[in-house]
Amino acid sequence: MIFLKLLRESFLFAYDALTQNKLRTILSLLGVTIGIFTIIAVFSAVDTLRSNLQASVDKLGNNSIYIQKWPWMFGNDYPWWKYMQRPVPSQRDFEELKRRSQTAAGVSFEVFIEQRKVKYKSNTVSGAVLYAVSHDHNITWTYEYAEGRFFTEVESRTGAPAAIIGHDIAAHLFPAGNAIGKKIKIMGRNVSVIGVFKKEGQDLLETSADKQILLPINFVRNLIDLKNPNYHLSIVVKGKEGVPEAEVESELQGLMRSIRRLKPGEEDNFALNKSTLVSNQLDQLFGIVNLAGVVIGGFSILVGGFGIANIMFVSVKERTNIIGIQKSLGAKNYFILLQFLIEAVVLCLMGGAIGLFFVYLGTLAVSGFSDLEIILGTQNIIQGILISVSIGIISGIVPAYGASRLKPVDAIRSN
């Protein structure tokens, strides 16, 4: 109880000192405010970008491996001339993988077709992204449907003229709603709409299904040449539940080398891409951005800390007589130390709170002008508070300790 009473009195002394010197207090807050604002704003921006990018990457599928001609990631030595000579994934590769793989839950053959025009009566949508897929695409990629369904196995096998369209396409072609069962014209052919994807919104990697159209690959193969290099072909393999991704990747590498009859020691003429490659690159990138934010904000906080320390030395000098009177009346050293240390911590906490408030206002502003989900998590707020308290303790401990060691008689006699 005595300690709590002393702590309360220390807060009151600190509050009185801060309110009596308002201008000095405000100027002291600026450095800490700017520093906390910079650090927490960078942390929040990084968390926001990481979350949104990771959500886009997660759409590629966990434990899903993409067999393609080109790798997603490459270093400084990029032998593009070798990749140019690689064959594109073929129907034979797909069928053999599906037949031989023991670790795959699903194997999908997919073709990305350049943006095309889609019509329904007098309504037209330009820039629709067409994907021709095999039946297992429903396993290797997860969709949510606003209405309708995925292709049946019979529709996929026979190449039925059916399509699943994105939310934005459905909204433009069918403003009155009820797209299911309607016939739209794609690539000069009439196809029936059997499903509409749930609205996803645009993400940072532009993997949204809002402007996509799915078609059975056996329907599209009659309209385009699947060996044409202008189309992006890939085979997507989804590993079985509980099977490590490394095991799936190892099996696929062996199977692909066998299917393409590559000799021992001969380089792979295919790329095995996976979402973890992108995630690892994002971790490295955001690690650098975080470090830059800490360095920039650290300098601001360092300046603010020196400012707080300077103000505390001035405060001790101004109140030396009062310190002498307090000690002559029986005040302990730790009471004097707490009095000034709490003043420094309160100053830094006020600066940190103002900095966090400005970060919060920034998140509201960005959310109002964009579709991004801005993240100002509890962890960031706690970090801001802890940094503020730490700066207060570090910048205030020396002046506070010096004040606590003053002798009563010398302090009273000082001018």
TrEMBL record:
GO terms for molecular function: transmembrane transporter activity. The keyword Membrane applies. The chain crosses the membrane at residues 26-46, 285-313, 334-361, 381-403. It is found in: Cell membrane. InterPro entries: ABC3_permease_C (IPR003838), MacB_PCD (IPR025857), Macrolide_Exporter_MacB (IPR050250). Residues 25-253 form the MacB-like periplasmic core domain. It comes from the Bacteria. The keyword Transmembrane applies. Residues 295-408 form the ABC3 transporter permease C-terminal domain. It is a multi-pass membrane protein. Pfam families: FtsX (PF02687), MacB_PCD (PF12704). Keywords: Cell membrane, Membrane, Transmembrane, Transmembrane helix. One of its GO terms (cellular component) is plasma membrane. Belongs to the ABC-4 integral membrane protein family. This is ABC transporter permease. It comes from Mucilaginibacter hurinus. The lineage of its organism: Bacteria, Pseudomonadati, Bacteroidota, Sphingobacteriia, Sphingobacteriales.
